[in-house]
Amino acid sequence: MQLVFASNNKNKITEIQALVPSSISILSLKDIGCLEDIPETADTIEGNAILKANYVTEKYGYNCFADDSGLEIDYLNGAPGVYSARFAGEQKNNFDNIQKVLKELKSVENRKAQFKTVIALNLNQEQKLFTGIIKGTITNNPQGDNGFGYDPIFQPVNFQKTFAEMPQNEKSAISHRGKAVAQLLTYLKEI
Questions:
Q1: Domain extent for 177
Q2: Which of 31, 37, 67, 68 is an active site residue?
C-alpha cells in the first residue's frame, strides 16, 4: 500500500516512517511534487488535518493522510492549540514559541497541558479521523535535545523527563502522534 503523508516537515515524516510497517510506503509532499504550503486556515486541529488531506486528494488524486497537532495549556484556556506552530509569530520559530509559553506561565502553579494530534485519512473516497492525546505538564526550563517543537518543555504524566530527553522510540510509544498513528494502522489492517 502507498499513502501520501501530507507534510514536508522532516521531523514528522521521520516519526511517521518509524511507526508504520514496511508494507506501507509513505510518500512526502515533495515526493509527489507538491512544493506549495498547504493553507492551514481552520480554527481547529481537526479542521487543519482535514484541509491538508483534502488538498492532496483533490489536487493530486492520491490516497493520503494528514495530521495537525497542538499543545493545549490549561492556564491559557487551551492555547496555543491550533496556533502552536506560530504562537510567537508567523516565523514559526520553535525557540520563540517555547520562550513565549514560559513567559506566559511565569510563576503560574497550574502547568497542566496536553498534546493533541488529529490524523485525517482519505482512502478510497472515504475519510476517517484518528485522535491521539497525551497529558502532561510544562516544565520551568527547556530540557533535552531530541524531538522538536515544544518537546523540551513538555513532561508527560508519570515521567520524570521531557519528550526532548527521550529517545525517539520511547517518545513514539506514548506520544499523541504515536497514539493517533496506532489507531490509523489498526484501521488500515482491518480493511
A1: 2-190
A2: 68
Distance CA 72, CA 116 (A): 7
Report residue 108's pLDDT band, with 50, 70 and 90 as the boundaries. very high
pLDDT digits over 7-45, tens only?
888 778 887 888 888 888 899 999 999 999 898 899 999
CB 71 within 8 A of CB 45: no
At 21, the amino acid letter reads P
Q: Is 68 a known active-site residue?
A: yes
Q: Residue 149 belongs to a domain with what CATH number? A: 3.90.950.10
> pTM (2 decimals)?
0.91
Contacts of 149 (CB under 8 A, 6+ apart): 11, 69, 71, 84, 85, 94, 97
